[in-house]
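Example for tutorial group B:
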């Protein structure tokens, strides 16, 4: 491996990070609304791909072949197809009243004076069913603002509880795009990753609930609309079917069908609208679909020029120096890769896709099970997403609650607790 070529192959990736992150910082300083969304990732990566083609030093035909090979990687295409189905399910469930039903069902169980732990639990359950933190925040935020107004609770705490609960499902859900990315890149079944992941996520959630219980104060009872329990069936069904081990494609297709049927029965949903709603769900995944393919292309250039091997070698050497006992340092290295990458690009799915192959090579070399490496990737990427004020979640909460993104991030206790629990989990594992 030519070390100089390997190092140069990383420049396009650094360029992508610089464009995506740098443009957001500059626009934020200028006071532009939603600054980190003005240059979407799937656009910011195009100049990086052009630079990768130039650095490849082969004919244009050969370079385009590399680009297509990376975009057409089996894992990337499978991931993208699941993204589309997940988007379709969310769109149909929302159109048929499923989201509203699940929200109202959750509101029925909140005891007076316990809005913070109650909201955290509701958000956790909804995000676990929906598989999306942004979707959960979008569904719950308007109601959560009403919680703050009605109970007199500090809106920053309400936002933090919602943020943390939403990230719980983003990290753990079977249909979360981060789970899809982590399991596909590590070659592991979703149910196995779920069982490994919950060992960290559930204790972190319990500690978070205790924290919110300790800081809760007396407040008024929260009102909600009458619950249509039948409308919650599609959410419960996909969770049960996915955990039981059914193929994720079948789970999502059945979820779409069930959501449409309950809409026809319960809300007068017109079946003729199903095609449009599915199409809208597909469209909502357009950006991440294109970005995942382009990231696959960029990764293929780096791989062919030795960049991935050079990074893996550096991280392995650092980990081996840090610890000669077991593979704890290597597990931390996998987490660090995902964490640092997400801090830079503010997208936990992309962070997992970018670091997935390197992490898998580290895991194979140091006897780390695929389910453990997939879990670590997802946990650390989602923890990082909880810390950045320029992520989609923090920006959405900021706009809805009329607070600064920093306030939303600083009150997201679950993200910090999850991060600490991951270290404890790695530190106290049984030695091989």
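The residue assignment follows.
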């Amino acid at each position: 491996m030519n070390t100089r070529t390997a190092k140069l192959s990383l420049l396009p990736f650094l360029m992508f990070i610089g464009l995506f992150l740098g443009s957001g910082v500059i626009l934020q300083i200028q006071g532009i609304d939603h600054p980190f969304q003005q240059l979407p990732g799937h656009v910011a990566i195009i100049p990086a791909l052009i630079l990768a083609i130039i650095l490849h030093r082969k004919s244009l035909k050969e370079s385009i072949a590399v680009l297509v090979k990376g975009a057409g990687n089996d894992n990337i295409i499978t991931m993208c197809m699941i993204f589309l189905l997940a988007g379709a399910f969310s769109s149909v469930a929302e159109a048929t009243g499923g989201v509203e039903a699940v929200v109202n069902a959750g509101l029925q169980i909140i005891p007076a004076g316990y809005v913070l732990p109650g909201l955290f639990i509701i958000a956790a359950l909804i995000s676990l069913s929906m598989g999306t933190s942004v979707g959960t925040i979008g569904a719950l935020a308007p109601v959560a603002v009403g919680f703050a107004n009605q109970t007199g609770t500090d809106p920053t705490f309400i936002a933090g509880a919602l943020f943390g609960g939403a990230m719980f499902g983003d990290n753990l859900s079977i249909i979360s795009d981060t789970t899809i990315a982590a399991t596909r890149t590590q070659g592991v079944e979703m149910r196995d990753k779920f069982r490994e992941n919950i060992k960290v996520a559930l204790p972190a959630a319990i500690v978070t609930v205790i924290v919110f219980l300790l800081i809760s104060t007396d407040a008024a009872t929260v009102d909600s609309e009458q619950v249509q329990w039948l409308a919650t069936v599609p959410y419960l069904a996909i969770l049960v079917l996915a955990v039981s081990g059914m193929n994720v494609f079948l789970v999502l297709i059945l979820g779409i069908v069930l959501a449409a049927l309950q809409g026809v029965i319960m809300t007068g949903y017109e079946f003729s609208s199903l095609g449009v709603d599915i199409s809208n769900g597909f469209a909502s995944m357009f950006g991440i679909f294109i970005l995942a393919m382009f990231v696959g292309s960029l990764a293929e250039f780096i791989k062919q020029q030795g960049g991935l091997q050079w990074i893996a070698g550096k991280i392995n050497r650092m980990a081996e120096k840090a610890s000669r006992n077991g593979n704890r340092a290597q597990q931390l290295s996998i987490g660090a890769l995902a964490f640092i990458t997400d801090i830079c690009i503010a997208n936990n799915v992309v962070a997992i896709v970018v670091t997935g192959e390197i992490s898998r090579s580290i895991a194979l070399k140091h006897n780390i099970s695929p389910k453990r490496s997939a879990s670590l990737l997802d946990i650390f990427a989602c923890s990082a997403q909880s810390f950045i004020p320029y992520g989609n979640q923090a920006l959405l909460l900021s706009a809805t609650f009329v607070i600064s993104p920093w306030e939303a991030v600083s009150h997201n206790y679950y993200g910090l607790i999850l991060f600490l629990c991951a270290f404890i989990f790695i530190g106290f594992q049984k030695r091989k």
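Residues 3-427 form one domain. Compare this with the pattern of hydrophobic and polar residues in the output above.
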